[in-house]
Amino acid sequence: MAGICLNEDDSHFYVTRTAEEMDEEHVDALVDTYAGTQVRELLFCPNAMRTSYASAVWPAIWDGYDPEAGDDQPFLQSAGSEMRRWPHNAWLLNHQGIDPYQRWLARSRTLNISPWLSMRMNDVHCVDNLNSPLVTEFWRKHQEYWRVPWRFDSWQHRAFDYGRKEVRDHHMLLVRELVERYDMDGLELDWMRFGYHFRPGREEQGRGILTEFTSQVRELLDRREAELGHPIKLGCRVPSRPQTARALGMDAVEWARRGLVDMIVVTPFWATIEFDMPIELWKELLGETDVILAAGLEVLLRPFPQPAPARYCDVEAVRGAAASLLARGADRIYLFNYMDNPMNNPMASQPDENGTYLTKGQYERVLNETGSLETLAGKPRRHVVTYSDTWAPGEPEAASLPTRCEKGKTAEFRLHIGPKPQSGKSTVLIGTKEGKSDIEVHVNSSLCPRVEAHPDDGARSPAEILHECDVPLKELNPGYNVIEATSRTADAEIVWVELFIHER
């Protein structure tokens, strides 16, 4: 069985629990959620720009916060009272002498789950607000350390520039503290928070810099292994496509060939789950290395970049992505932003008015099904055209949708479905922004019988009309399938393409 890696972020536990639950029992109970599931590695994130524990080298999330003061205190003024629960609950645990990361690592081992830490290497949440409680004085005072200090179009422009030695030294301080403070099975360097680490045009020099940085971390882990008497793996999270990862300075293939990393997670950044990641290419490039290749799934689903509205992935979408990526050779499914109890999170919001997160029962199904092709077999799954949300500066950005299809013209799409279903039925859904055109659909060059065209209720897609066609199972391929949508009676704007497999 391949299995699941799951990333527990730096704020989730604190903002989804009450002050009364800040005790050892409830800390341990977080890990108990995953006992007996397909989760093989739990990766606990202890930091963003601040730490969620009492660090000696970086500011903690509660530094500057007064637990006795009201919501109008300076620490909260630029963020609002909804921000309070995170620093307050983290402070409460520390005030009681409880280190949650120490307990989570130990508890995981007792439940036969491999415990890791995941360090965010360049987190820039809320850097549009210089007074945000999430940023630090070091970042605020040293704008010369920012990637793009001369303009501001995105949070990534205010990420740290790893071309500066001062920046690398600052982050290595926390790496060293985590390695020396905690007994873990592995440390992940999360380069996808937020994915851009060098000034535009300096990424080529950056490849050598990040390779040397990774080598230094590996040396730290080697020394710690000797002290603890057990191996400590090193992992990394990088963009979904190897050419983009390399162009951004994250040469994960080179790290693997040099024996520096033991696990590579290929993933989108955040905006959407990515159904079509080139796992086969990664496996070919990694060759005979014994690196674990994990396919990262995000929790949001968009068919194209904003202004396309986001929806949360449902169980069927997670199954579809996992089935495809496992069939292509992924060694793990890696879940990011898939966490328990999210709607108690006062800092979280729905992607839009139609968005819904996984219920407790749905979350349990994800944890018990999506790590294995065997447990996915026979269950309904969705395969949706989405896009890659991370690109190197100057790299052409590609998205198949939306596409304008003139009357009599045809638009083509490719969807990878993993294993071919052996029974049940399959449906193609083509979503358009208007319903004037009659859409004719071929799958793998075979005409598909029309079922109906009906208004979308918004829960599935941003389309106004969904055109449904049945696909005979004999016409499906394992792996890639080509969908042709021809607009017969009027121009149409196609905004959604999906293969829904009702396997049984």
Features of the shown structure:
504 residues; alpha/beta; TIM Barrel; Jelly Rolls; eight-stranded parallel barrel; six-stranded antiparallel sheet; 22% strand; globular
Summarize the structure.
The chain is α/β, with parallel strands linked by helices.
How many DSSP E strands? 20
Spans of at least 5 consecutive residues with low confidence = none
Share in helix: 25-40%
Report the structural category.
alpha/beta
- Count structural domains: 2
What CATH calls the topology of the largest domain is: TIM Barrel
User: Strand portion, in percent?
Assistant: 15-25%
From the 3D coordinates, which CATH architecture of the largest domain would you assign?
A: Alpha-Beta Barrel
Strand order of the largest sheet: 1-2-3-4-5-6-7-10
SS field, number of helical segments:
14
Q: What's the name of the CATH homologous superfamily of the largest domain?
A: Glycosidases
Quaternary state of the chains: single chain
* Gap between N and C termini: 21 Å
CATH class of the largest domain: Alpha Beta
Choose one word for the global shape: globular
- Sheet of most strands: 8 strands, parallel, barrel
> Taking Cα atoms only, what radius of gyration do you get, to the nearest Å?
23 Å
Average pLDDT over all residues: 95
